[in-house]
Amino acid sequence: MADVLSQGEIDALLSAISTGQMDADELKKEETEKKVKVYDFKRALRFSKDQIRSLSRIHENFARLLTTYFSAQLRTYVQITVTSVDQLPYEEFIRSIPKMTILNVFEPYPLDGRLLMEVNPNIAYAMLDRLLGGKGDSINKVENLTEIETRIMSQLFQRTLDSFQDAWSSVIELEPVMEEIEVNPQFLQMVSPNETVVVISLSTTIGETSGMINICLPHVVLEEILPKLSVHYWMQEKKKQRAPGEVLTIERTLNRAPLLVQAELGTSEISIQEFLHLGIGDVIELDQSIHEPLLVKVGGEHKYYAQPGKMKNQVAVQVTELIEEAEENE
């Protein structure tokens, strides 16, 4: 985005030109000169801005799902939000995270390769303390995790993959499987050092403890589904969902749905005393005149006027008029 000058800066610039401190011709010359932008081939930008925005939307949904999941599991205040989405070399990402941390490596079937969820030790131990009945205090002892602690964390983060699967369901049906938990990033080599990865940073608060959760997505793993991360593809998908064949299928299903139609010959009111003394052969007088049309109810609502008659020796009614109230309701 270009810098926007304030009114004070504009006034100072005009004043400098009018007093001769700045030359307008030199300014024009600078504008006409080609601007050179330095490009670092080690930091190849292999994801477009459109794809980065799509990844950001997907993981904003993932953050909301994680907030709900951890709130239910830990029974304490949890807040998770996306703070940044950056693309950088894998080596640079590895150097940026702590030397001892919680690294959850999982395989996103059917995609080839591995993805990484790095959880700051402060956050990981606050979760562990809550699961074991504590207040959610954080004690950084990640270098010597016990087998029990590793097992508990593994089960906790294994279930977060369900939320990851749901967040990605609009793009691809993933079946992520937890592969291992590592604590030293130097022992973890998922891709080549210069491979471009997208790092989604999630700001996480568990009770009174705050930290970061980083999702590392290598370009080589997402390469085959990158076209699906464009807005153009999503618009095409929405059009496909409204295909005429699907609309016709819905219409046929609705047309086969049963609907109750009733023709009222009239109504009458009698007292309880008269009702108790009714017998065979008694006649109940209706308030419907033989010169007035009958009311036809569809699904319990008055819909038409009709006149009684016979068709093929069976009692029938002929619709004569649509009730105006029904027209207004439509």
Automatic annotation (TrEMBL):
The keyword Transferase does not apply. InterPro entries: CheC-like_sf, Flag_FliM, FliN-like_C, SpoA-like_sf. Its main location: other. Coiled coil: none annotated. It comes from the Bacteria. It is a peripheral membrane protein. Residues 254-323 form the Flagellar motor switch protein FliN-like C-terminal domain. One of its GO terms (molecular function) is cytoskeletal motor activity. Keywords: Bacterial flagellum, Cell membrane, Cell projection, Chemotaxis, Cilium, Flagellar rotation, Flagellum, Membrane. This is Flagellar motor switch protein FliM. It comes from Halalkalibacter oceani. The lineage of its organism: Bacteria, Bacillati, Bacillota, Bacilli, Bacillales.
